[in-house]
Specification:
Elements (H helix, E strand, L loop, with lengths): L6 H6 L5 E3 L9 H9 L4 E4 L5 H14 L4 E6 L8 H17 L15 H11 L3 E5 L5 H9 L3 E6 L2 H10 L3 E5 L5 E2 L14 H11 L4 E4 L5 H9 L4 E4 L13 H7 L7 E4 L7 E4 L2 H5 L12 H5 L1 H10 L21 H16 L53
Parallel strand pairs: 1-9, 2-3, 3-4, 4-5, 5-6, 6-8, 8-9
Antiparallel strand pairs: 7-11, 10-11
Bound molecules: flavin mononucleotide (FMN).
The site of flavin mononucleotide has 29 residues, from strand 7 and strand 9.
Length: 406
């Protein structure tokens, strides 16, 4: 069977098992989402930060550009509790940067973030094709509503225990987010460091432990990466950074220009922009506030506190204070239209895989998305921690973020 035909393409009604990752904060425009869907992949609209009406409008915008299926992405985490001491400390730490940009010393009171429930209402009313989510698993009652509405669900896991939690909740697909990935870490069980598993390890690991189809994400930048994870048992890929420099991407031109540059713009993990760890290009804010990360409030409080600083920086084209989300593969970014990229990746992967994925599974690797699923995981994961649906745990003092350079 052709490598492009998988349970993912079948479930979603798409031609290629290639999902464009949701990219909140500007890059994931309706134009990019539609371009990917029109090219045979699945575009994803980043809805996590959108209140109901803008979310509805964004869905309508995508629909005006494509009649193909696309997904919407939401975050599941309960917002961090208001935390006056950490908020005061963050304001103090951000004040010198605000002064540099001519902003008042403290940000205006942040608006309330949207709730998952009100966002979900919109998706159910709009009958979108698929919902992907990160930072946890929605309550069963919501998953049932989505199933009844025929909406395909994709949850994000960064290690085995999370994949098992998602499988037990009944999601249709599990996105395996490798440590290489740009953007927020989806880790919702245990310490963020526990979820820093490379995609070449994570893909076969999850394929071995759960029967739910796996979508590999993180560091996949072209047809070579797609072929590699297909061979390792993924039913498809989710790619974010590879689309960042496309003309359809809404990333700031100064941000796009940095993606392909050398080692001084290596990625790092930081929580200075939002209160959750995520992979970004290193800049002044990540470097200078590195030592104070544990003093900052959680997601999305820190996101709201840095909002006008990031906006003022973007208006001036000043990358020092922008959140430059990017994966470790960013040096491979291409500036071509999304449709052209997808066509060339499909060609590359086809050249590598021929007409099918023929590599034999490892002896212990009894379960792959295309083989007969196992009903029980083969072994218990090492971690004994309980799943948490709350926001990200406070960072431990000994967490040393990945400093590796692309
Ligand atoms: C700019 C950017 C923004 C992102 N925003 C989101 C988001 O809103 N929701 C989400 O689930 N993942 C988000 N991600 C993470 C992606 O879902 C995915 O894990 C990642 O892009 C895969 O790794 P790659 O960037 O190396 O392809 C974002 C990634 C990037 C690069």
């Amino acid at each position: 069977m052709n490598w492009t035909h998988t349970v993912l393409t079948e479930r979603l009604g798409i031609r290629y098992p290639i999902i464009q990752a949701p990219m909140a904060g500007g890059p994931g425009t309706p134009q990019l989402v539609a371009a990917v869907s029109n090219a045979g992949g699945l575009g994803t609209l980043a809805g996590g930060y959108l209140h109901p009406e803008p979310l509805r409008q964004a869905i309508a915008h995508v629909r005006s550009l494509t009649d193909r299926p696309f997904a919407v992405n939401l975050s599941v985490a309960a917002p961090a509790k208001t935390d006056p001491a950490h908020i005061a400390r963050a304001s103090e730490l951000l004040a010198p940067y605000r002064a540099e940009l001519g902003l008042p010393p403290t940000p205006a009171s942040p608006a309330e973030p949207p709730t998952f429930e009100e966002q979900l209402d919109v998706l159910l009313q709009e009958r979108v094709s698929a919902l992907s989510f990160t930072f946890g698993a929605p309550d069963n009652v919501y998953l049932e509503l989505l199933r009844d509405a025929g909406i395909v669900t994709l949850g994000t896991a960064t290690h085995v225990l999370e994949a098992i939690v998602l499988e037990e909740s009944g999601v249709d697909c599990i996105i395996a987010q490798g440590a290489e990935a740009g953007g927020h870490r989806g880790t919702f069980v245990g310490h963020p460091e526990q979820g820093l598993v490379g995609i070449l390890t994570l893909t076969p690991l999850l394929a071995q432990h759960v029967a739910t189809p796996i979508v590999a994400a993180g560091g996949i930048m072209d047809g070579r990466g797609i072929a590699a994870v297909r061979v390792l048992g993924a039913a498809g890929v989710q790619m974010g950074t590879a689309f960042l420099a496309c003309p359809e991407s809404g990333a700031h031109p100064a941000y796009k220009a940095l993606l392909r540059q050398g080692s001084e713009i290596a990625t790092t993990l930081s929580r200075v922009f939002t209160g959750r760890y995520g992979r970004v290009l290193r800049n002044r804010l990540t470097d200078e506030l590195r030592a104070h990360e544990a003093e900052l409030p959680g997601f999305p409080l820190q996101l709201l506190l840095t909002q006008d600083l990031r906006q003022a920086a973007a208006e001036r084209g000043l990358t020092d204070f922008m959140a430059l989300w990017a994966g470790q593969g960013c040096y491979l970014c291409e500036t071509r239209p999304a449709g052209e990229l997808i066509a060339s990746w499909v060609e590359q992967a086809t050249a590598l895989l021929g007409s099918g994925v023929s590599s034999p599974p490892a002896p212990e690797l009894a379960s792959t998305p295309e083989s007969e699923p196992e009903s029980e995981p083969e072994s218990e994961p090492e971690s004994e921690s309980e799943p948490e649906s709350e926001s990200e745990p406070e960072p431990a003092a000994d967490f040393t973020p990945d400093q590796s350079k692309p």
